[in-house]
Amino acid sequence: MIRFGIVGGGLMGHGIAVALARAGFGVAVHDADPATLADLGERVGQALQRCGTAVEERATVAERITAAATLTELARSSDIVVEAVPERLEVKHQVLAALEERVGDVTPIWSNTSVLPLTEVAKGMRHPRRLVGVHWWNPPYVIPLVEVAPGAETDHRFVEEACEVLNGLGKTTVRLQRDVPGFVGNRLQFALVREALHLLEQGVCDAVTIDTVMRSSLALRWPAVGPMENADFIGLELTRSILRSLSPHLSARTGDFPVLDELLRAGHGGRASGAGLLPWPEGRSEEVARRLEAGIRHNLAASQHGPAGVRRAAKR
Ligand SMILES: NC(=O)c1ccc[n+]([C@@H]2O[C@H](COP(=O)([O-])OP(=O)(O)OC[C@H]3O[C@@H](n4cnc5c(N)ncnc54)[C@H](O)[C@@H]3O)[C@@H](O)[C@H]2O)c1
Question: Which domains does the chain possess?
Answer without folding.
Answer: 3-175 (3.40.50.720), 185-251 (1.10.1040.10)
